[in-house]
Design brief:
With about 475 residues, the protein is α/β, with parallel strands linked by helices. It has two domains: about 240 residues, Nucleotidyltransferase, domain 5 (2-Layer Sandwich), CATH 3.30.420; about 190 residues, Nucleotidyltransferase, domain 5, CATH 3.30.420. It is built from 16 helices and 24 strands. Strands 1, 2, 3, 5, 13, 14 and 15 form a seven-stranded mixed β-sheet that branches. Strands 18-19-17-16-22-23-24 form a seven-stranded mixed β-sheet. β22, α13 and β23 form a beta-alpha-beta unit.
């Protein structure tokens, strides 16, 4: 029996496959293929058939597809895939970053109230959530919504194509807005809302991400170059797969630095935050994954560097300068109409100080997200390192800033494809009949990499930034 498994990351713009030796977690092959995202004026949509085509191309690029003994898919959260009775997509799928459903999300929040949403589903829905996209479809294209024979998430669509079974997992289901992580059930109160009116028979069965759900069909094998009959896991959403791929234990904080930023940790109990700052997701196993998101991370800091004419690493201690780089408004803290703010400038202030202050402002928002997670879910482990991932984690200035403002040891794993690696661990666990895929990832030592030694937390700097943020919030509230 082959010891190779495949982990799939179907992200917004591309599909990546890692072929992993389950014996030791070594990566023996990689493949990646793009898929198109289209839309204007807030619309962001993809043809789900393009994900299937990209999966075939990525598997072929590995050159090892025929040797794989199990496969699992992790996918971008929240997207809405509407299928006909044959399993074919009825329309392009609105993605997580499609904002055309913003008015529908606001109306849904009004329908139930923030406290009820948080209690019923763990989260207060935003435009990104699947429930808002379905409400938008019913409002704007009622005939299309009425024709739906099945409603899926992106990873569900691919998993069903692989094995012929309609399944999802609790992690990805928790981002829909119509499934309750606390109860482990679809939320009947949400499905019955007039704006939703969704028959639960159109939805997939919810399992854990490592559950074995079937085997690759002959038709799928022929299309993808896989062997028919190999094991298929239920799979999960991208954030949940990253947590598996990092082998996270409860209470270990993670910050992911991309164009936007995320902060999350595995928790023992579900979160319910009526403010909406914390999304009370489930993880891919039997625990939970409260998550906070910021809109401004690496792109915003790089823009500040470009304005100053500096290399992104050309930082100096910030001194009195505070930069809140909320160039796109901000979600954490909840300041959607804010703009970038600079204060504390002096004649002696240097461009390098301003740039460092931008790093500080972006990281402070993510650390505030971790504080909100701790308040809404369960305590973070005071002795655990801060795990830093994403494109920004490669940067020395980001690493040093994270260490100084968190007061924790910072770990930066060498492997950057934690989502696909987590999917591979789910595949390996499924082939063994299910189990703790994160524990397997820990045996694979997936967090090996660079460690930045803890330094004393810069509380004075944090206090200065939080004072400016409070004043900015007052100004925004005053209009």
């Amino acid at each position: 029996m082959s010891s190779l498994v495949a982990g799939v990351d179907c992200s917004t713009q591309s599909t990546t496959v890692l072929v992993v030796d389950e014996a030791d977690g070594s990566i023996v092959a990689r493949g990646s293929a793009p898929h198109a995202v289209e839309g204007r004026h807030g619309a962001r949509r993809s043809d789900p058939e393009g994900w299937w085509t990209a999966l075939a191309a990525a598997l072929a690029q590995t050159g090892r597809a025929g040797e794989v003994g199990a496969i699992a898919v992790a996918g971008q959260q929240h997207g809405l895939v509407v299928l006909d009775a044959s399993g074919a997509p009825l329309a392009p799928a609105p993605l997580w970053n499609d904002t055309t459903s913003a008015p529908d999300a606001a109306a849904l929040v009004e329908d139930l109230g923030r406290a009820a949403w948080a209690a019923d589903t763990g989260s207060v829905p935003l435009a990104s959530f699947t429930v808002a996209k379905w409400a938008n479809l019913r409002r704007t294209q009622p005939a299309l919504a009425a024709a739906a024979a099945a409603v899926r998430l992106p990873h569900d669509f691919l998993t069903e194509r692989l094995c012929g079974r309609a399944v999802t997992d609790r992690g990805d289901a928790s981002g829909t807005g119509w499934w309750s992580p606390a109860a482990g059930l679809y939320a009947d109160q949400v499905l019955a809302l007039e704006r939703v009116r969704l028959d639960p028979a159109l939805l997939p069965q919810v399992l854990t991400g490592a559950a074995p759900v079937g085997t690759v069909t002959a038709q799928a094998a022929a299309a993808l170059g896989l062997r028919a009959g190999i094991a298929v896991a239920a799979g999960t959403g991208d954030n949940m797969a990253a947590a598996v791929g990092l082998g996270l234990e409860a209470g270990t904080p993670v910050i992911s630095l991309g164009t936007s930023g995320t902060a999350y940790a595995v928790a023992e109990r579900p979160a319910a935050d009526p403010s909406g700052v914390v999304a009370g997701f489930a993880d891919a196993g039997e625990r939970f994954l409260p998550l906070a998101c910021t809109l401004n991370a690496t792109l915003a800091v790089d823009r500040v560097a470009a304005w100053l004419g500096l290399d992104r690493e050309a930082v100096e201690p910030a001194g009195e300068v505070v930069v809140l780089p909320y160039l796109d408004g901000e979600r954490t803290p909840d300041l959607p109409h804010a703009a970038g703010t600079i204060t504390g400038l002096r004649h002696a202030t240097t461009p390098g100080q301003i740039l460092q202050a931008a790093y500080d402002g972006a990281l402070e928002a993510l650390l505030a997200g971790l504080d909100a997670i701790e308040a809404a879910a369960s305590p973070l482990d005071a002795h655990a390192p801060l795990v830093l991932v994403g494109g920004g984690a490669r940067g020395a200035a980001w690493r040093a800033t994270a260490a100084r403002l968190s007061g924790r040891t910072v770990e930066v794993p060498d492997e950057t494809e934690s989502v696909a690696l987590g999917a591979a661990a789910l595949a390996a666990a499924a082939r063994a009949g299910g189990g703790d895929a994160a524990a397997l990832a820990r045996r694979w030592d997936t967090r090996r990499g660079t460690r930045i030694t803890a330094v004393a937390r810069d509380d004075a700097r944090l206090a200065r930034m939080r004072d400016v943020r409070a004043r900015l919030a007052e100004l925004n509230a005053a209009g």
